[in-house]
Model the fold of this input.
Amino acid sequence: MKTFPSTKSDATINVRDGRRRKVVAEAISLSKHFGQIRALQSASFTLSEGEVLAVVGANGAGKSTLLKILAGVYPPDGGTLRVNGEEVTSFSAPESRGRGIEMVYQDLDDVPNMDAVYNLFVGRPIRKWGIFADYKSMIAKTREVLTGLGVATVQDVTQPVETMSGGQRQALAIARAVTWGSGIIILDEPTAALGILETERVLRLIGDLKGKRASILLVTHNLEHVFRVADQILVMYQGRSIAQMQRQDTNLAKLAAAIVSGAH
Ligand SMILES: Nc1ncnc2c1ncn2[C@@H]1O[C@H](COP(=O)(O)OP(=O)(O)OP(=O)(O)O)[C@@H](O)[C@H]1O
Ligand SMILES: [Mg+2]
Done:
C-alpha cells in the first residue's frame, strides 16, 4: 500500500449564499495511471457537509477512478486528498470506511454466493450478548432496509444474491451504504439497473440523507436526475475535472455541451 507523509489541518469552512458549510472532502489535482493508461490527469473537487455533488462526464472520463480513490480502493499517483480536514496518507477500503465513507460501486462488489443478510452485514454483524451473531435480528433488519428502498420483491433474504435480480442487488448495495455510511456516501450510477419506482425511491432517499447531513457524491449519466438532486456539479473530461459549479449556475444545454466538448 502506498503511503504519503501525514499532515493535519482544521476542516475548511466554505462560505456560500451567506451560509457556512464544513468541507468534508477536498481533492486537489489527483492523478492516477494504470500502466500506460492515464485514468486521471488532474481532478479536484470540494464536497461540503449535507450537500449532493453530482459527478458527470462521458464514459472513461475518470469518474469511477476518482471516487474509488476516495473510497480507498487504490491510492492516487499524485495530488492531495483531505477528509474532514485531514490529509489522507494511507489508502485502503477499511480505512476509508473508518472515516465514515461508504461506496456503492458501479460494478457491484457483493459476494455472489452469499445471501442478502451476509452481504448487508459483512464484517459488522449484529451481536447478541456481545458474542454471537444474531442472525434473526439481521434477517429482520435486511427486510426492513430493502422494504424502505421500495424493494419488497425480494422474497427470501437468505437466498444467494446471485439469484436476485440486477435491480434487487443494486438496491441491496445502496442499502448497505446508507446503513453504514456515517459521513460521505458515494453512489456510482446507483440507479442504472433500477426500475422507475425504485429509481424514484433512491432519488428521494438521497434527499433524506442530505437532511441527515450526509454528504453525497453521485455519479450519473442522467442529467434530469442531476438537476433534481444535486447542489453542486463536477464535470469530468478526459481525466480532468474541468468545472465544479452550483446547480443554479448552469442548465441542461450548457452542462451537456461541457460533458461532450470539455468546454465550459
Ligand atoms: N483498473 C484499471 N486498469 C486499467 N485501466 C483502468 C482501470 N480503471 C479504469 N481504467 C481506465 O481509466 C479510464 C477512466 O475509467 P473510469 O472507470 O474512471 O471512467 P468513468 O468516467 O467511470 O466511465 P463510465 O461512465 O463508463 O463508468 C478508462 O480509460 C478506463 O479504461
Ligand atoms: Mg464509471
